[in-house]
Amino acid sequence: MLCYSFFLKNENASVVDLKIVNTSDKSDTLYNGELNEHYHSINGAISESLHIFIDAGLNYSKANPVKIFEVGFGTGLNAILTFKEAINKGLSVHYTSIELHPIDFNIIKQLNYNYLLPKDNLSVFYKMHECEWNENINISKNFSFKKIHADFTRYDFSDQFDLIYFDAFAPEKQPHLWTYNIFKKVYDTLSINGILTTYSSKGIVKDNLRQAGFVVKKLNGPKGKRHMVRALKNIMAVV
Ligand SMILES: C[S@@+](CC[C@H](N)C(=O)[O-])C[C@H]1O[C@@H](n2cnc3c(N)ncnc32)[C@H](O)[C@@H]1O
To answer: Of 91, 85, 71, which is closest to residue 189 (Cα–Cα)?
Structure first.
């Protein structure tokens, strides 16, 4: 496994120990040494993101335009793969993402997505990173984008969303992000047929989702992971 190390001073002035790690599908992810946690599965960063968020989330949703909210912008991989899929499928997307610890652009540029993404997607990917925080920008006619620099635990929604990509660090590392209160906040902001997708199928996660009102379905996980979860707001919907 190939690794490069950096010490990143982020905008919150805390030092985070990050390493670039090449995963099994040849796409890079980051390793956070402070939390001892990867940003994506080491069994394939791009394939995990496609499986959990694009296939089980975006492609399952019937909303078009679709309003997406991501918990944890991180490397921006989910955002750029959503853009790519939206172009392929002719979808109109309003994408909002929240991040407490933005990653330095010098590190982002060293991820091998510059080899793996088509050239026109790469320029969009860089634009997503370089644009101002907390401002709505039109990436294309059918794709608007906003990244919010804030702590999700303190964030109050002012909009309604159709699809939540719940991509915080694991419940073992960040239990305060996988609670009943957090999922209730997410539930309340979803439209009637709203969907949440996430990689964690831990018992406590499913219990807290159900308590918040979601209908929870365990799905097959990506390579190296038995299960993932898709949770629906509409109790009449078939998950
Ligand atoms: C698993 S990584 C996300 C991966 C990201 N979606 C990607 O494609 O790279 C979890 C992300 O959640 C962010 N995060 C952790 N706690 C947060 C909080 N309280 N509010 C907002 N973001 C948070 C982390 O900084 C990290 O970028």
So the answer is: 71
